[in-house]
């Protein structure tokens, strides 16, 4: 609480600062100021809201997929935040499919106008918050979900590709996500928490922190591939997948960080003509017979 005194209070402060009792009574819903930053913050700066907008801007639209990108938010809070954003005109609900079974969430023009804000916020975070990433923040599930949204579907071969990730250095609270799978296809990308039963094209092993550093653009893929991060499997897939997952450009250069990319990758709910040089540390490809799949199924938000 402000306890000092202004010798010559400005007109702005005289108009903008209400009585203390009134301020405390309304601070949960309003800053009580006409300042545009204050009014925008009442909508955008609530807990979880920027991350919900982040998910929508990466091409995610269903309640289920938004929730997967925010694993620590409760369903009740997510429902509340989505309703608030809809009430403020930032998002809108649209029927899903011709039969109208359920609905998806889409940005309105007002919501799309937040892209410049998100871009600036991401740049600021890349510059000033790197040292705030703690070991407990290193969530393999969030990383894999981020990679799923980042896949360039147009560059994939015309067949299914299965990647198995084996992470070390995972926080104790997230060890159930130590091994995960990405199933790539031109029609979409699936995330599996259990063995999907398909032959593995490429197994990737390494410390979760190293993968996060590559994902955020703090480390070049080529500097750690075959050393800190080991690859085991199909050599051609190993050459191509850094481009598919936007770790590298088709010319072998480091790709921009996720929030700086030109646009979101196409996301589905339920070939490069020039490949980088051979990664070291490769071994012969292994395969296995198919088994019954066990994939995570989508669920819908309860009706409003």
Automatic annotation (TrEMBL):
Region (Disordered) residue spans? 259-304
Show which residues constitute the signal peptide. none
User: Domain HTH hxlR-type, which positions?
Assistant: 35-133
Give the lineage: Bacteria, Pseudomonadati, Pseudomonadota, Alphaproteobacteria, Hyphomicrobiales
- What GO molecular functions are on record for this protein? DNA binding
What protein name does the entry list? Helix-turn-helix transcriptional regulator
Short name of one Pfam family: HxlR
Ordered alphabetically, the record's keywords are: DNA-binding, Transcription, Transcription regulation
| InterPro entries with a match to the protein in the record | HTH_HxlR, WH-like_DNA-bd_sf, WH_DNA-bd_sf
Question: Which spans does this entry mark as compositional bias, Basic and acidic residues?
Answer: 292-304
Write down the Gene3D superfamilies for this protein, in alphabetical order: Winged helix-like DNA-binding domain superfamily/Winged helix DNA-binding domain
Q: Which superkingdom, per the lineage?
A: Bacteria
């Amino acid at each position: 609480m402000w306890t000092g005194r202004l010798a010559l209070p400005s007109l702005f402060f005289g108009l903008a600062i209400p009585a203390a009792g009134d301020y405390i009574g309304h601070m949960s819903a309003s800053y009580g100021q006409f300042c545009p930053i204050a009014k925008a913050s009442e909508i955008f700066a609530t807990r979880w809201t920027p991350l919900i907008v982040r998910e929508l801007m990466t091409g995610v639209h269903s309640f289920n997929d938004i929730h997967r990108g925010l694993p620590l938010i409760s369903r009740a809070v997510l429902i509340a935040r989505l309703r608030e954003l809809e009430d403020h005109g930032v998002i809108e609900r649209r029927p899903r499919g011709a039969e109208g079974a359920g609905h998806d969430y889409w940005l309105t023009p007002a919501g799309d106008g937040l892209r410049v804000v998100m871009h600036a916020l991401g740049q600021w975070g890349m510059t000033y918050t790197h040292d705030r990433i703690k070991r407990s923040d290193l969530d393999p599930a969030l990383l894999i979900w981020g990679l799923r949204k980042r896949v360039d579907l147009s560059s994939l071969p015309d067949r299914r590709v299965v990647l198995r990730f084996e992470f070390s250095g995972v926080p104790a609270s997230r060890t159930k996500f130590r091994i995960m799978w990405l199933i790539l296809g031109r029609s979409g990308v699936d995330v599996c928490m259990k063995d999907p039963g398909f032959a593995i094209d490429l197994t990737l092993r390494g410390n979760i922190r190293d993968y996060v550093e590559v994902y955020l653009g703090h480390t070049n893929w080529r500097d750690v591939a075959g050393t800190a991060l080991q690859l085991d499997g199909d050599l051609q897939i190993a050459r191509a997948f850094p481009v598919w997952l936007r770790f590298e450009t088709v010319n072998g250069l480091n790709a921009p960080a996720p929030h700086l990319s030109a646009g979101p990758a196409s996301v589905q709910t339920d070939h490069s003509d020039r490949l980088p040089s051979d990664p070291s540390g490769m071994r012969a490809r292994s395969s296995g017979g198919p088994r019954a799949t066990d994939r995570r199924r989508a669920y819908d938000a309860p009706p409003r």
